[in-house]
Automatic annotation (TrEMBL):
Database matches in InterPro entries: 23S_rRNA-intervening_sequence, 23S_rRNA_IVS_sf
Signal sequence region: none
This protein's name: Four helix bundle protein
Organism of this sequence: Pedobacter psychrodurus
């Protein structure tokens, strides 16, 4: 079976694991949030890996960097949703800090990837 380039990215693998953990986390949110916060956070966390996958199919490094940047911004969107979940007492402060740490790790790796893509497009 062929492995696509995005599947080899450590940051994509982290985003994949993070998505699963967020899906499991939101299962304990109140049912009235199904079409609100749950839907929003699932969409944003899914977009992290999706942007990396889509960007890997682009030809130029500048285009790849654009999609990596979009993955970065959706990671921050996910952070915002986690802050809302904490504010609404859907998650504890400890849970929030655990997920925030994972987000920081992902954003650091996304920044590094984006910088390498930008540098490769500007020799």
């Amino acid at each position: 079976m062929h492995t696509y380039s995005f599947e080899k990215l450590e940051v994509w693998q982290l985003a994949r694991t993070f998505r699963k953990s967020i899906y499991l986390l939101t299962a304990k949110f109140p049912k009235e949030e199904t079409f609100g916060l749950i839907s929003q956070i699932k969409r944003s966390v899914s977009s992290i890996g999706a942007c990396l996958a889509e960007g890997s199919g682009k030809i130029t490094m500048k285009d790849k960097a654009h999609y990596t940047n979009m993955a970065y911004t959706t990671t921050l969107e996910t952070l915002n949703h986690l802050i809302a979940a904490m504010d609404l007492d859907y998650i504890t402060n400890e849970e929030y800090l655990t997920y925030r740490s994972k987000i920081e790790n992902i954003t650091i790796k996304l920044s590094g990837l984006r910088n390498s893509q930008i540098n490769a497009s500007n020799p």
